[in-house]
């Protein structure tokens, strides 16, 4: 097997992750329009996404335990191959029920990825056991994903002119390439010195009990659990998930000429916003009293989402939605960095998966409720999302005493 030097290895990891992030952003700017072209309405699209989130919720803890016990890299590599299958199967059916089956494949992929990738990524690349180091790595991830999203959005916009199906097949090939590229990288989190039989028959059940106890203690402690960060983040996901499928038709409606490629260019600007959020979060991690920026970001998201719906010019709507993306990603990146610092080492993947499950429940609530509004008017659904961001701000303000000094 190819063995990389310690100096080259981090750059190789970032390169392979860039390919993966490029693939998942390649067609994301037209995903809702693609499903609308298959005859679905906004509510059915939200039902698909809600079904995915429910499936992820049910799978998160089992896949997190597998990652903690057998190694995180194997878990998220499986996730990558499953995502490639999702892209390929998506192009061959228009049936809503078959799409439910296909979305379940992506749900397994997301569940295998969520906790395991973060735990592997941090443990593999961190050099210092400091809170600021965790935030730096989360920021690096956001920056890398944003740069990949910018380039993928631009090239994806050119591809859709020749057919969206072609773009999804290209995305599937890129996911597989990224998974293969990661093979030479050591896991470093897998258990060693025991046979597979021993791991399954004598260790798994005791580990489940121990991990679940540690996770319960984590969420039960106001000091470590930091509900003052977890709850506002979950409420924010209600708003973000609710409008995640709606910005594409909103911009296309404002543009007026149905030039679908403008959605790819819009995605470039949105990813520029997340890129700046990643860069700014790196700078803010070194400042004292960083938590004072969290609440401001939630209020800014509320204002910018409201503005995106109110403006008549599509490019103004794109600009303000980009500012919203900047504000919320800044908030979520800083929040995840501080939460990760307090996670128990023995159950990082499980705890991260549990937090992700909470956000998934919030996402289902947001998508179902806001999509019902969208079938009447998309603008009003954005107004509702703006109000939810204000609710997230209020919850942060009420629980701010629960958050440790940052």
Commentary on this structure:
With 406 residues, this protein is mostly helical. The protein is built from 16 helices and no strands. It has helices at 9-25, 31-37, 42-70, 72-90, 96-125, 131-159, 164-181, 196-220, 222-225, 227-243, 247-255, 261-284, 292-310, 314-341, 348-374, 378-399. The longest helix is centred in the N-terminal third of the chain and has 30 residues, at 96-125. The termini are far apart. The relative contact order is 0.16.
Helix content percent band: over 70%
* Coarse structural class: mainly alpha
Catalogue the unreliable spans. Answer: 191-206
| CA-atom Rg in angstroms | 21 Å
Average of pLDDT:
80
Largest sheet: none
Short description:
With 406 residues, the protein is mainly alpha-helical. It contains 16 helices and no strands. The model is unreliable at 191-206 (pLDDT under 50).
């Amino acid at each position: 097997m190819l063995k990389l030097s310690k100096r080259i290895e981090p750059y190789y990891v970032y390169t392979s992750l860039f390919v993966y992030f490029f693939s998942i952003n390649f067609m994301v700017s037209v995903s809702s329009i693609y499903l609308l072209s298959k005859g679905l309405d906004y509510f059915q699209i939200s039902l698909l996404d809600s079904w995915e989130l429910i499936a992820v919720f049910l799978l998160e803890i089992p896949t997190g335990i597998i990652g903690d016990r057998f190694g995180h890299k194997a878990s998220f590599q499986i996730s990558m191959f499953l995502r490639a299958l999702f892209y390929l199967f998506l192009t061959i059916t228009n049936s809503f029920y078959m799409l439910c089956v296909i979305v379940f494949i992506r749900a397994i992929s997301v569940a295998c990825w969520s906790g395991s990738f973060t735990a592997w990524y941090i443990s593999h690349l961190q050099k210092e056991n400091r809170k600021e180091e965790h935030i730096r790595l989360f920021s690096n991830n956001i920056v890398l994903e944003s740069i990949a999203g910018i380039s993928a959005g631009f090239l994806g916009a050119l591809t859709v002119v020749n057919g969206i199906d072609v773009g999804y097949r290209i995305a599937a090939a890129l996911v597989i390439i990224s998974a293969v590229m990661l093979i030479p990288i050591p896991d470093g989190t897998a258990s060693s010195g025991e046979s597979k039989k021993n791991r399954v028959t004598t260790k798994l059940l005791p580990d489940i009990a121990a991990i679940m106890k540690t996770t319960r203690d984590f969420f039960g402690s106001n000091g470590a659990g930091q509900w003052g960060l977890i709850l506002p983040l979950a409420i924010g996901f209600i708003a973000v998930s609710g409008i995640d499928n709606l910005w594409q038709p909103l911009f296309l409606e404002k543009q007026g000429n149905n030039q679908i490629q403008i959605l790819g260019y819009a995605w470039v600007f949105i990813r520029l916003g997340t890129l700046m959020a990643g860069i700014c979060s790196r700078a803010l991690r070194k400042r004292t009293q960083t938590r004072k920026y969290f609440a401001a970001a939630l209020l800014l998201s509320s204002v910018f989402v409201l503005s995106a719906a109110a403006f008549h010019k599509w490019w103004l709507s794109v600009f303000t939605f980009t500012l919203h993306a900047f504000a919320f990603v800044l908030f979520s990146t800083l929040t995840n960095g501080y939460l990760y610092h307090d996670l128990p080492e023995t159950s990082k993947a499980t705890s991260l998966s549990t937090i992700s499950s909470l956000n998934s429940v919030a996402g289902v609530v947001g998508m179902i409720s806001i999509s019902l509004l969208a079938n009447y008017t998309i603008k009003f659904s954005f107004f509702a999302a703006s109000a939810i961001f204000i609710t997230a701000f209020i919850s942060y303000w009420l629980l701010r005493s629960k958050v440790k000094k940052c």
